[in-house]
Structure formats: structure tokens, C-alpha cells
Amino acid sequence: AEIEPEPEDREYIPHALNDTSRIDLLILGATGITGTMACTVMQRQMGLGRTWAVAGRNGRRLQLIKHKFGQGELFRGVFRVETREELEKAVRSARIVLDFTG
């Protein structure tokens, strides 16, 4: 019997964010080694009082990041970005973007 892959959840950043709902810090490329280290720092420092989220292309790995680091009231979620438009929307939603891609 073949194992069916789990459907990948896609979470999107809302189209309209007012300034009070913006994410303070977005970790782009969170599923790589350096991005995961940044998630560890945010979790250990309790986000330094800042709201934060993670973004990347690999839905399955993003869900693992969410499971490992997504506890706490300051964590805002994972955002899968595959297109230029999705990337631009994610970047516009954050005050600071840490880019660990590539």
C-alpha cells in the first residue's frame, strides 16, 4: 500500500493589515539551518517582546517549524510563499524581515 502525502496547509498573510496588526519580525527562509537558529533565538528570548512569524517555500518543513517553535502568544504563524506576489505580501506585513534564503 502506498502512503499518501499529507496535504500541505497554506496559510496566507491577510491582504490588508493595519499598523497595529503588523508582524514585528518575519524570518524568511526559516526552514534552513540559519533560519532555524534564528527561530531558536526568538523562542529562547520569548521574541524579545516582539511579534514574529516565519515564511518559506516548503510547506511540510514550515509545519515542523510551527510545531517546534510556534508556542506563545507572540508567534503569529507560518506563511508559505511560492510566488513573487506572496513574497511581496509577506514582506509588506512585517516591520523587519530577516532573510535567510539562498
Low-confidence stretches: 1-6, 12-19
Outline: globular
Q: Strand share of the residues?
A: 15-25%
**Count of individual helical segments:** 3
Structural class: alpha/beta
Biggest pleated sheet = 4 strands, parallel
Report the strand count: 4
SSE succession: EHEHEHE
Could you tell me the mean pLDDT? 81
**Over the alpha carbons, how many angstroms does the gyration radius reach?**
13 Å
Q: Whole-Å distance between the termini?
A: 37 Å
How much helical structure, as a percent, in the residues?
25-40%
Q: How are the strands of the largest sheet arranged?
A: 3-2-1-4
Question: What keywords describe this structure?
Answer:
alpha/beta; 4-stranded parallel beta sheet; 4 strands; 31% helix; globular; disordered N terminus
